[in-house]
Amino acid sequence: MNFQTQVPNGASRPNTFDEKGKHSRKPAARWIKLSIVLLLYLAFLVWVRSWWGLILVPVIYDAYISKIIPWGWWKRSNNKGLRAVMSWVDAILFALVAVYFVNLYVFQNYQIPSSSLEKSLLVGDYLYVSKISYGPRVPNTPLSLPLTQHTLPGLNVKSYLDWPHWSYKRVAGFGKVERGDIVVFNFPAGDTVALNNQAEDFYSLSYREGQRLYPKKINMDSLTSAQQQAVYQLYYSAGSQFIRSNPGIYGKVVTRPVDRRENYVKRCVGLPGDTLQIKDTQVYINGAPFKNPENLQFNYFVQTTGPYIPETLFRELGISEDDRVLMNDEYAYEEGLVEMGFRQRDAGGRLAPVYHLPLTKKMYDTLAGNKKLVSRIIREPETLSGQMYPLNLNSGWTRDNYGPVWIPAKGVTITLTEENLPVYERCIEAYEGNRLEKRADGIYINGEKCDSYTFQMDYYWMMGDNRHNSADSRYWGFVPEDHVVGKPLVIWLSLDKDRAWFDGHIRWSRLFKWVPGD
User: Fold this and answer.
1) SS3 at position 82
2) Burial state string for 377-393 with b = 16 or more CB within 10 A and e = fewer than 16
3) What is the b/e burial string over 417-432, where b = at least 16 CB atoms within 10 angstroms of the residue's CB?
4) Which uninterrupted H or E stretch holds 282?
5) Is the overall model pTM greater than 0.90, yes or no?
6) What pLDDT, on the 0 to 100 scale, is given for residue 384?
7) Residue 158 bridge partners (DSSP)
8) CB 263 within 8 A of CB 485
């Protein structure tokens, strides 16, 4: 119904009352706002290809037009304290919802926790990670608290609900992962975690503990491939059972969906369908050498002529305190160092200081050129590599000499053999959800005997630029496409934990710097 009311200057103007008598002076403006919001919301639903969101359309309509639900009830209260508190609650809830959707579909803040990509990215760098560069994923676990990955800080409980659980789907983005890209992804081996040992993946931990528990060392070189796999399965089963039986030592063993696994950041070295091989630290892709990043690092043992390396030189080189190890002080390694060729003695007859340091070529040249201070530099031997992927294959591969290995590509069919099954069984079983069995008469997938497999996803090979200090695909294998999170674009803040606030704690030269590509 329309009425005429008098205004102070004597003029009259129409006002509108709805059927409930609620005063509404600008109905047209509300319809315009509703139209804009609905248009944007429907465009979002088209982008993410999810029509479940249509159930919210009546709610949006009510918020702008019908107002059956009293959304702003607190604004009409006579209690000033209640209005003040609820205004803050309203603002916080709006911010949390906005952050939730921005983090899921646009960008996310990420901090570099380890030195695996130094010197390309440094510990203490804070990054904006673009979700739309490769296309954001629709979350597997949509009901979760914003700004948490898998655990509520302080409470040590899950920050997400396991139900509902949505299947993998990625919406359109600006491009695809390219060779040389630095990529953020969920840790593939992080599906199972011992909470007190989260720095090591559960599978490597189980193999290692199983080998330790087994009373007799087995010569793997004398066994066939099938026998080796049986022994490694024995190690894994024994170690896994021991870990699960000792929660006081290892913590509770939990499983996590893909989008709730730890975030890792590495450089993409191999793409789907590539054949990768490492020869004497050089990566080859399809037989051609991969262009090494400018800041590629390896570990070296550096012996001085007698004095210690001064702090000023460490700062000039950019070597953090965590990366400096003085072998003479930390370990009883003198015999091993002498065998490696370090024989320089100081005036007291002791072995001159030997450091264990990660160095780029430029850093290596700086130290090698300082003949007054440095007497010898030797690259860390590959015997310190540890167990390579796949853990259940005695391949003889090391971090410096690895492969060749073919990287799975979606839609490609391979022939399965005893030799290549350990390389691809995790893709078949853990990542693509099949039931794989090795029986006496062959390989069975989902109960059917088969000698081939067609991959359902693309996979990538990720490595750190700090090659000897990076737990990467050489240790835990391929990264499935559904684990890819996004692409770091900008370093918006960088803090050096070794420095005080007024002594270089903020790395000003790195602020708002583009993340380097290949």
Assistant:
1) helix
2) eeebeeeebeebbbbbb
3) eeebbbbbbbbbebbb
4) strand 282-285
5) no
6) 80
7) 151
8) yes
DSSP letter string over 126-169? EEEEESSSS-PBPPSS--B-TT-SSB-TTT-SBSB-S-S-PPP-
Residues 148 and 104: their CA atoms lie apart, in Å, by 12
Per-residue buried b or exposed e for 316-347, using 16+ beta carbons within 10 Å of the residue's own CB:
ebebbeebbeebbeeeebeeebeebebebeee
CA dihedral 148, 152, 157, 163 (to 10 degrees): -40
pLDDT of residue 48: 85
Average pLDDT score over residue span 69-95: 89
pLDDT tens digits, one per residue of 305-331: 999 999 999 999 999 999 999 988 656
pLDDT of 97 reads 87
Encoded amino acid at 443, one letter: I
Residues comprising the chain, all counted: 518
The answer to which of 220-229, 242-251, 499-508 has the lowest mean pLDDT is 220-229
Q: How far is CA 55 from CA 52, 137, 443, 470, in A?
A: 6, 21, 46, 46
Q: At 201, which helix (H) or strand (E)?
A: none
Q: Which residue shows structure tokens 């579909």?
A: 105
